[in-house]
Amino acid sequence: MNKNILLMMAAFAAGPLAGQDARQIADSLSIPEIKAGTRQLPMPSASGAQIKLLGADYEELVNSKGKIAPVISDTPVNLSFKVTKGGKEAISKDYEII
């Protein structure tokens, strides 16, 4: 296959991901799985964007730095994030973790 055609195919395939703005990323974050005993929140990531934890509804369980407190039983906690990309910012919806 012609090298130029392959490059064009790669550009079209990457387009939707590379073209996402801060709002689109904030609306579609994928929160990594949290395993029992985890003490630090695994942060979501997105190419070309900065993602910061804004907070949790139970700050005693997940503090502003993402430290997870030990718990006796599984407890749902809602988290929100600030996404910055291309000089624009967006606040995510709440994401529930257990």
Write the SSE topology.
Layout: H1 3-18, H2 22-27, E1 50-56, E2 77-85, E3 88-91, E4 95-97
Antiparallel strand pairs: 1-2, 2-3, 2-4
Compute the separation of the termini in Å: 48 Å
Biggest sheet features: 4 strands, antiparallel
Radius of gyration over all CA atoms, rounded: 17 Å
Low-confidence stretches: 1-17
How many helix segments? 2
Number of self-contained structural domains: 1
Category by helix and strand content: alpha+beta
Q: What's the overall average pLDDT, rounded?
A: 84
- Total DSSP E strands: 4
Tell me what portion of residues adopts beta-strand conformation.
Answer: 15-25%
Order of helices and strands: HHEEEE
Report on this structure:
The chain is built from 2 helices and 4 strands. The protein has 98 residues and is an alpha+beta fold. The protein has one domain (22-97). Strands 1, 2, 3 and 4 form a 4-stranded antiparallel β-sheet that branches. The radius of gyration is 17 Å and the shape is elongated. The model is unreliable at 1-17 (pLDDT under 50).
Name some characteristics of this structure:
single chain, 98 residues, alpha+beta, 4-stranded antiparallel beta sheet, disordered N terminus
In brief, what are we looking at here?
22% of the residues lie in helices and 23% in strands.
